[in-house]
């Protein structure tokens, strides 16, 4: 039997994606066995990130700087913005290193069932960025779900009066699939085959 503190740590870890109760207990045991080489560096890294973690006011990414590293990167193409639902989608797309532009995180997707309305998302920030000029293309990289496609359609309507090329990911992304769970090859094909909306 483990102490209450160890059980509490295992329960906290089991709430992380991909870790169930048994996996969390194995992680705790590994951390306890490797205190100096694994646990203590992990604690320092978590504390350092926790103190510096911020949401980028420009794009909505989570980073340790505001604006984030992507927004301040001079190698990025400022004329292209890829719109995603969540930060995990941004990280998944950026991991492929195929999109050279900037990003915009909505913070979710429209959903009548869940009561998520346009004003609940960071849509106005996107419109402000496009209205400021200098943007030639907006890529709608919504997840291939009904709510994702509803969100893409709504954004297309909001952006139709701006002189931009509006594209979306190709349908190589499976229906019901979420970007964060796709392999790099599928993401690469979807980005390369993006097409105009409408």
Structural description of this entry:
- The protein is α/β, with parallel strands linked by helices and 198 residues long.
- It folds into two domains: 4-52, Helicase, Ruva Protein, domain 3 (Orthogonal Bundle); 62-196, 3-Layer(aba) Sandwich (Dna Topoisomerase Vi A Subunit, Chain: A, domain 2).
- Helices cover 43% and strands 14% of the residues.
- β1 (54-55) and β2 (62-63) form a beta hairpin.
- The N and C termini lie far apart (60 Å).
Key structural traits:
alpha/beta, 198 residues, Helicase, Ruva Protein, domain 3, 43% helix, elongated, 14% strand, Dna Topoisomerase Vi A Subunit, Chain: A, domain 2, two-stranded antiparallel ribbon
CATH architecture tag of the largest domain: 3-Layer(aba) Sandwich
Beta-strand residue percentage: 5-15%
Residues in helices, as a percent range: 40-55%
Query: Could you name the ranges where pLDDT drops below 50 across 5 or more consecutive residues?
Result: none
The geometry reads as elongated
Provide the succession of SSEs: HHHEEHEHEHEHEHE
- Main sheet strand line-up: 4-3-5-6-7
Please tell me how large the radius of gyration is.
20 Å
């Amino acid at each position: 039997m483990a102490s209450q503190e160890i059980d509490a740590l295992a329960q906290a870890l089991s709430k992380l994606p991909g870790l169930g109760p048994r996996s969390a207990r194995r992680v705790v045991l590994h951390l306890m066995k490797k205190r100096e080489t694994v646990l203590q560096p992990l604690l320092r890294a978590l504390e350092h990130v926790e103190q510096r973690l911020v949401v980028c006011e420009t794009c909505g990414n989570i980073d340790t700087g505001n604006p984030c590293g992507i927004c301040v990167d001079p190698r990025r193409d400022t004329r292209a913005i890829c719109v995603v639902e969540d930060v995990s989608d941004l990280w998944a797309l950026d991991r492929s290193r195929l999109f050279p532009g900037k990003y915009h995180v909505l913070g979710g997707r429209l959903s009548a069932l869940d009561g998520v309305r346009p004003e609940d998302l960071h849509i106005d920030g996107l419109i402000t960025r496009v209205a400021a000029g200098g943007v030639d293309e907006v890529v709608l990289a919504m997840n291939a779900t009904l709510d994702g496609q509803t969100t893409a359609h709504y954004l297309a309507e909001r952006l139709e009066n701006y002189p931009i090329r509006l594209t979306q990911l190709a349908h190589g992304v499976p229906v019901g699939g979420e970007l964060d769970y796709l392999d790099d090859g599928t993401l690469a094909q979807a980005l390369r085959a993006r097409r105009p909306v409408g």
